[in-house]
Amino acid sequence: MSTMYETIMDLPLFKGVGKDHVSQFLEKTPITFNNYTDGEVISHPGEEVKMIKFIISGEVIISNRLDSIDITVEERSGSGRVLGADRLFGISTGYPFKITSHGKTSIMQFKKEQ
Question: What sections of 10-88 are H helices per DSSP?
Answer without folding.
Answer: 19-28
